[in-house]
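Before relying on records like the one below, remember that each one covers exactly one chain. Contacts with other chains, cofactors or solvent are not represented anywhere in the record.
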Amino acid sequence: MCQLFKVARSSYYAFSKLATKEPSKRQLDNQILLEKIRIIFEKNKSRYGSPRIHKTLLQQGDRCSLGRVKRLMRAAGLYAISSRKYKAKQEKSEIKETKNLLLEPSNRATTINQVWHSDITYVPTDEGWLYLAGSMDSFSKRIVGYAEEPSAAGSIWS
């Protein structure tokens, strides 16, 4: 039959051994490991990728490499669901021009403490940012008050 099909006899016997050959120990280990990977993957609602699954397997006492987990997951078509990062959207409202009522002669300050202006700024220092807020009386042009706050954990400015 080998002469009829023009196939070497050794090739025929090599093929027949492969067809009846049982899976190797490594292939059996991969099948067992893949079942464990599927269980972890489905238990976590398809959100775990190979690094997390690898870490979980190590915690369970199964020693394997991250590359092996990646390869088995890729071959089985197991890909983690990734959600989009939240990105705050700005409202695209129409910009309306408004006039400054304080510039009109009828609304100007005639005595002290009628109109105050305030502003905030920050100054870089060796210890971090220093935030400075101040208020000025519009009539007398004097600083009515100010407050400074270093940027630190628990600060109202951070």
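Helices lie at 2-5, 9-20, 25-43, 50-60, 66-76.
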